[in-house]
């Protein structure tokens, strides 16, 4: 939900306050229009700052991925493999080995707390809110340009 979704509610409140403070209807309309323009301008500045930060992070990610050092370019794949192995253990190996251990009377394998693993994996897969927002804005791997933000009037 962006500022454009809340601007009408803010303007309703502002209009109510302005109508109590400013008796002239023309001045009320002018003041409300100026406040609306200021809100839209601030949102545009905020959107540009967010896009600049995202581009800077994308540039850092690209530089890391192109690095010949495995300690720079290899940390993301390493974390991905650790998460994948952790999930394989938690959801495939441990249950199967625990079942086999109960059948043959052997000690069971320990269970792992997957809460931190889930947080890390979901973030890496982009299943948090930012990736959803990016997809709704039309930003994908084939189109890495930031979306054009149209000003609503």
The helix-and-strand class reads mainly alpha
Major sheet: none
Uncertain runs with pLDDT below 50, 5 residues or more?
none
Q: How many distinct helices?
A: 6
Q: Can you give the helix content as a percent range?
A: over 70%
Q: How would you state the average pLDDT, rounded?
A: 79
Distance between the termini: 17 Å
Query: Count the strands?
Result: 0
Beta-strand percentage range: under 5%
Described by the principal axes of the CA atoms, the overall outline is elongated
Order of helical and strand elements: HHHHHH
What is the radius of gyration computed over CA atoms, rounded to a whole number of angstroms?
A: 26 Å
Would you give an account of this structure?
The structure is a single chain. The mean pLDDT is 79. The protein is built from 6 helices and no strands. It is elongated and about 90 Å long. By secondary structure, it is an all-alpha fold. It starts with a helix and ends in a 16-residue tail after the last helix. The protein has a domain of 74 residues. Helix content is 75%, strand content 0%. Helix 1 packs antiparallel against helix 2.
């Amino acid at each position: 939900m962006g500022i454009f979704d809340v601007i009408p509610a803010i303007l309703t409140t502002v209009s109510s306050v302005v109508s109590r403070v400013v008796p002239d209807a023309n001045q009320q309309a002018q003041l409300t229009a100026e406040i609306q323009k200021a809100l839209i301008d601030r949102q545009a500045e905020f959107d540009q700052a967010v896009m600049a930060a995202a581009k800077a992070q994308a540039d850092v990610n690209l530089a890391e991925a192109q690095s010949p050092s495995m300690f720079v370019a290899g940390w993301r794949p390493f974390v991905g493999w650790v998460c994948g192995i952790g999930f394989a253990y938690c959801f495939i190996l441990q249950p199967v080995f625990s079942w086999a251990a109960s059948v043959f009377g052997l000690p069971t394998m320990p269970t792992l707390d997957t809460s931190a693993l889930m947080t890390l994996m979901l973030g890496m897969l982009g299943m948090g809110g930012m990736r959803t927002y990016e997809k709704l804005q039309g930003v994908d791997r084939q189109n890495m340009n930031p979306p054009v933000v149209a000003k609503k009037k």
